Amino acid sequence: MKAYPGTRLGIGVIGCGNISMTYLHNAALFAGVELKACADISSDMSALRAKEYGIRAMEVDALLADPEVDLVLNLTIPAVHFDVTMAALSAGKHVFTEKPLATSAAEGRKLVAEARRRALLLGSAPDTFLGAAGRRARGLMDAGAIGRPVSGTAFMFGRGMEHWHPNPQFYYQPGGGPMFDMGPYYLTMLVNLLGPVKSVMAMATKGQEERLITADGPFKNTTFKVGTPTNVLSLLEFQSGATVNFGASWDVFRHSNHPIELHGTEGSLRLPDPDTFGGTVSLSERGTEWKNFESGDELYGAPNWPYSAPDRANYRMLGVADLVRALGEGRAPRASGDLALHVLEIMEATLASSEARSAVAIAGTVTQPPLLGEDEAHSLLA
User: Fold this and answer.
1) Rounded distance between C-alpha atoms, residue 307 and residue 291, angstroms
2) Which residues form a coiled coil (predicted)?
3) CB within 8 A of 327, min separation 6: which ones?
């Protein structure tokens, strides 16, 4: 891949919903990125974000044709991720998209192939594994702190969306559910730590055929039909030989499972919620008491969100900054389209396994992304 030292990219945002505020706010932290424009299906939303962040509000087609926009940040809903990303690649723009890469592996492969054909970089959320907790865990794993990984558990359990989201129906349709909505955070972290997945066995159910919306809004106290599994339990077999139980459910009111635990021949590692960039990583060497590694004072681990009363770390845009640096260095970004595609293939295979009631091999593979070292992590800052 050709290198372009000193690269600085103009960013055009498509999709101006709630998540866009985090990306737009964090852009000022990072080197090599410059906000240029935004677009949304709602002109009122794009006008609002443009005013808030001092950029231009545009129609989508105009943004894609704008010579000042080098990279499209796709923050639309999952159902149109493929269409928007493909349109941006076809317009000659690099792309970083919110998760998932697409709603099917077949579409994901088309995006990866198109980016490669056009010599463009394609990146995808989540980039949370690049945060302080993820870097600490990866460093410990690479140093052999738990020896050869043997087994582990990962659990994303919760109540779902209808108790807080005023319009949650789309979360419960194909391409959604806890697997596609939250699974990318857990699976990306696991692949970052353990390498690619070889096969999966799973069972999936719907906790309820209909859900009641209790959140304030126009649909409060109405019900809707559930169109995708809301309770998924799987066994992942990694190419390294490690096996991990992964559960994703929106049918759990309360639980006491740690988000991720990994166990090896020399010890055990415990990780915080991979949906955030910080938290406590804990190591037990050969059965000793847990040694805690706090990240609150570390880079990309300090609480900065929500803005009014920060209690967690949210540095979304870090993956975009790494992509820009990757272009300058002639390498693949860490939060790459290839990594997102592998995660998408795992999720799709998980649901296919639950239907077939048998193990399903993962169609592709991926190279484990290199650790983001501390010096390089600092160099991404403005």
Assistant:
1) 30
2) none
3) 3, 4, 7, 9, 94, 121
Residue with tokens 């410990």: 140
What does the alpha-carbon distance between residue 221 and residue 173 come to, in Å, rounded to a whole number? 19
Q: Is the pLDDT of residue 289 over 80?
A: yes
- For 2, list phi and psi in degrees, rounded to 5: -70, 140
Cα distance between residue 233 and residue 353, in whole Å: 11
DSSP-derived 3-state class of residue 313: coil
Residue with tokens 């998209």: 97
Residue type, 104: S
Q: Are 318 and 300 in contact (CB under 8 A)?
A: yes
| Two tokens, residue 254 | 């309360």
Report the b/e string of 217-235 with b at 16+ CB within 10 A. Answer: eebeeeebebebbbbbbbb
pTM of the entire structure?
A: 0.96
pLDDT tens profile 146-197: 999 999 999 999 999 999 999 899 899 988 899 999 999 999 999 999 999 9
How many Cβ atoms from other residues are within 10 Å of residue 370's Cβ? 12
Q: What is the pLDDT of residues 22-67, one digit of tens each?
A: 999 999 999 999 999 999 999 999 999 999 999 999 999 999 999 9
Token pair 């989201």 in the structure block, residue: 165
| Beta-strand relationship, 260-264 and 267-271 | antiparallel
φ, ψ (nearest 5 deg) of residue 319: -65, -35
Q: First CA to last CA across the chain, in angstroms? A: 25
pLDDT tens digits, one per residue of 195-228: 999 999 999 999 999 999 999 999 999 999 999 9
d(CA 118, CA 115): 5
